[in-house]
Each structure stands twice: as C-alpha cells, then as structure tokens.
Amino acid sequence: MKLVKVYVTLKPSVLDSQGEAIKSAVHSMGYDQVEKVSMGKYFELHFQDYENLEKDVDAICDELLTNPNIETYRYEILEEK
Amino acid sequence: MKLVKVYVTLKPSVLDSQGEAIKSAVHSMGYDQVEKVSMGKYFELHFQDYENLEKDVDAICDELLTNPNIETYRYEILEEK
C-alpha cells in the first residue's frame, strides 16, 4: 500500500481571502508576529501498489483535486504497511 | 522567519463525507486502486522569530484553525530565510 499526501495551494498570483481573514483573526487574538497566512487543502489517498502510480496521481490531481487555473499542488508518496 | 505548516484532519471516528465523495469520483475516473481518501485543511503561517513560538502555534490551532470536537492537527516548524 502507498499513502499519497497531496497539498493544494492557491497560486501566488491569486488573492487568498481565507488566508487574509485568518491572519486578521490571529492578530485579533494578539499574535502580531504572524505576517502571512495561506490556506489550502490537504488530501490523503491510500493506493494499492502498482506501477505508474505517479502518472495516475498527476491525473487525479489535475482533473479532480485542483482547479488548475488558480491552484497548484505537490504530493509525496509514502510506503504504508 | 519561521514557516509553520499546519495539517488539520478529521478524527478517525468522524465520517469524512468529502473524502468518500472524492473516492467515488476517483473510482468513476477508472482508478479503482484507490482504497480510501481523506480530506483536510492545510495552512502555512509565516512567523517572526521568537521564543515560545510553539505555545502560540498550539493556541492558534486549538482556538482558530481546528474544531477540537471533530478535528485533530499536526504541524511542523521550518526555518525560512
């Protein structure tokens, strides 16, 4: 089994309004040392082992998990017992 | 500067309906090798350097970024140039 951890974030050129809102809330809690907050999505996919796993992960990320117009992704593939 | 990456996931006992929906969509794309999908949230917080950063990160996670009834979190603190 493989565990694929996918991190989806907004492209740097896109305004992260959720991140900005969280930054304001953090400041109102008194933590002024926080200079920037970004919010994204996180997925864990558990795969059976097989060849060409990465190609399929790319397809799933491109077609389902992200909006390629505004989001970008990275992932890591871990061995799972 | 420190970069804090926070991963928020549902507790295992909580039904992950978004994850289930994504798993169904992945299967309908033909990728039957995916056995389980979990969806969570991902945050990046950029902090000024200071002592006791972890205590504040814990407070921000507990009070703002997660719903402690149904979610759990982990984070990593990285050095940022």
From TrEMBL, chains A, B:
GO cellular component terms listed in the entry, alphabetical order: cytoplasm
Protein localization: Cytoplasm
Pathway(s) it belongs to: Purine metabolism; IMP biosynthesis via de novo pathway; 5-amino-1-(5-phospho-D-ribosyl)imidazole from N(2)-formyl-N(1)-(5-phospho-D-ribosyl)glycinamide: step 1/2
Protein origin, superkingdom: Bacteria
GO biological process entries: 'de novo' IMP biosynthetic process
Keywords from the UniProt entry: ATP-binding, Cytoplasm, Ligase, Nucleotide-binding, Purine biosynthesis
EC number: 6.3.5.3
InterPro entries named among the record's database cross-references: PurS (IPR003850), PurS-like_sf (IPR036604)
Reaction(s) the record says it catalyses: N(2)-formyl-N(1)-(5-phospho-beta-D-ribosyl)glycinamide + L-glutamine + ATP + H2O = 2-formamido-N(1)-(5-O-phospho-beta-D-ribosyl)acetamidine + L-glutamate + ADP + phosphate + H(+)
Gene Ontology molecular functions: ATP binding; phosphoribosylformylglycinamidine synthase activity
Sequence similarity: Belongs to the PurS family.
Role summary: Part of the phosphoribosylformylglycinamidine synthase complex involved in the purines biosynthetic pathway. Catalyzes the ATP-dependent conversion of formylglycinamide ribonucleotide (FGAR) and glutamine to yield formylglycinamidine ribonucleotide (FGAM) and glutamate. The FGAM synthase complex is composed of three subunits. PurQ produces an ammonia molecule by converting glutamine to glutamate. PurL transfers the ammonia molecule to FGAR to form FGAM in an ATP-dependent manner.
Subunit structure, as described in the record: Part of the FGAM synthase complex composed of 1 PurL, 1 PurQ and 2 PurS subunits.
Protein name: Phosphoribosylformylglycinamidine synthase subunit PurS
Organism: Companilactobacillus suantsaicola
